Amino acid sequence: MMTMNQVIQQRLEGSLVDLKKQMTDTRKKRQHGRKYEMPYERRTLDGVFFDKKK
Length: 54
Known about the structure:
It is built from 1 helix and no strands. The protein is an all-alpha fold.
């Protein structure tokens, strides 16, 4: 019984690691998509545009 519990625990931990990786990848893709769609999203309140490149 103890070995079966250990096997199940290992599989669950592996699934948790995979799920966390998928969530991280999805978050990165979503952020990249937003930056691509709206490159000038960060605006100042007075309407002045500051170029970050020097």
